[in-house]
Each structure stands twice: as C-alpha cells, then as structure tokens.
Amino acid sequence: MSLEQAQYFDSNGVRIRFIADGVGEPVVLVHGYTGRLEEWLDSGVFAVLAGRYRTIAFDCRGHGLSDRPHDPGQYGPKMGLDIVRLLEYLGLERAHLIGYSMGAHILAHLLTTHPRCFQTATLAGAPGRLEWSEADERRVEIEAAEMEAGLLRTQLARIAPPGGPAPTEAELKIRSEAQLAGQDRFALAAVRRSNRTQVVTAAQMRAVSVPTLGLVGTADPYLAGYQRLHNWMPQLQLVTIAGATHASAQGRPEFKAALLDFLSAHPWAPTP
C-alpha cells in the first residue's frame, strides 16, 4: 500500500485522511492515541487484512495528517462520528470496526450510539472508558499539561507493564519525542481533555448485541478492565496474548491470527 494513494474526506468541516486497499467485506482500522494510520502499516496488520478484506485505515482527528483542532469540544463522541461519516462517504452500510487503545475507546462509545455501523467490533488494547472519577479528572489534566510540554511521563508510566522497572528521564524524553514527532501537542492535549465524554455504562454495554472481540496482552495494565467488561458482556470473546505489552501486542502474530479468526466467524452481509 502506497501512502501516495491516501485520500481525504470532509467530516462536518474536519478534513480526514484515509487509505483503502483490498476487496471483500469492509474493515475499518482505528489507531491509538498519538498514533496515525501508519501504525497499521508498520505492524503488518493492514497488509494481512487487505489480503482478504477491503481494508480502510484513517488518521483520527487531532492526529497525523487529518485536521487538528485545539478545542476539546471537537473530540470525544465526534471522533466516533468521523467513522460514521467515513462509511457514508464510501457508500458502506456497516463494517468490521477494529480499534486499538484510543481507537477501542472510540469504538466502545460508538457501540452505544451507532450500533448499526458495526458488523463486528474489536476492542484491542483497551476495553472502553468504563468509569470516570475525580482521580481520572486529575490524571487527564496532568497528562494534557505534560503533552503540551512535550513529555509523556504519566501516560507512559500508566501503560507500562506491571512490575517492570520505571523508565529513566532520558528514556522518557526519547520515547516522548519519538511518539510526538510530526504531531500537534495542543491538539493531542485537547483529545485527552475530551476523554470524559466517551465514558460508557454497564447498562449500555450489557445492551450491546454486536459480536465483540476483546484482544489484549497479558502484560498490559488494561487487562483488568477487560475482565470487568466481560462481567458486563458475557458474550464478549476475550483473547489474550501471552507476555504482550500495550506497546507490543499489535505487532504480534497472535494479534493478526485472532483478528482473522474472529472476522471469518462473523461474515458481513448487507441489511435485507
């Protein structure tokens, strides 16, 4: 897939970059926070899926080469509406929707508002925002302020493998610079400040009838959240990747195999 083939569409005034390749049932990939559509190319997920499906990946608003507003009100649920409009732009009724980390949070919320857009949902690397507390509010402001300063100290510590050594200041600086290269720190801070508007409730998730896959590494701190979600959604198909961290799971062969198995078990069909 050549990035020279990237296209853009207008999502209610916000310009969104996307790529598409392959034929067959439609699959849409939603990347993580501070990421961009290239993460699906770099991990090999896009190529594997495009070999069997019409595969679409896009830069979420605030990321990559999509528009990057600085107003938190331009994020939250509006990030899910970009997916709805992308499907409409492509003339698709619904699709297999796959999100990683932030992308999974976006999809969990979208499941509660626009379930008809889904043939299946894959929540990978995050189970959705299952609660919101005063501690979450404080953490978000700390992480947003650090983002504006160009250092992801709190965020990187939060998603680090449990029990591992804390990264040094030098390591934090290197990793922060690598993740933020070419990004807009103030747009990303606005994304973080919108997180509270994506929270889902137990009642909402219990009502979900879309076939849903949870996919997470055993060394990812989000694993505990999946166990909670599974209590709310007994129909959730939960697959764990032994030893995988939040940063490494997406590139593991088990990740791709789980996606292919799940998608093939739930073939797409147009609405009668």
List keywords for this structure.
globular; 17% strand; 8-stranded mixed sheet
Beta content: 15-25%
Count of DSSP helices?
A: 11
Helicity range: 25-40%
| Spatial gap, N to C terminus | 33 Å
Low-confidence stretches: none
Structure description:
It is a single chain. This protein is an alpha/beta fold. The chain is built from eleven helices and eight strands. β1 and β2 (14-21) form a beta hairpin. The two termini are 33 Å apart.
Q: Can you describe this structure in just a few lines?
A:
With 272 residues, the chain is an alpha/beta fold. It contains eleven helices and eight strands.
Topology summary:
Layout: E1 7-11, E2 14-21, E3 26-30, H1 38-42, H2 45-50, E4 54-58, H3 77-89, E5 95-100, H4 102-113, E6 118-124, H5 134-149, H6 153-158, H7 169-180, H8 185-193, H9 202-206, E7 212-217, H10 223-232, E8 237-241, H11 253-265
Parallel strand pairs: 3-4, 3-5, 5-6, 6-7, 7-8
Antiparallel strand pairs: 1-2, 2-4
Helix pairs in contact: 3-4, 5-8
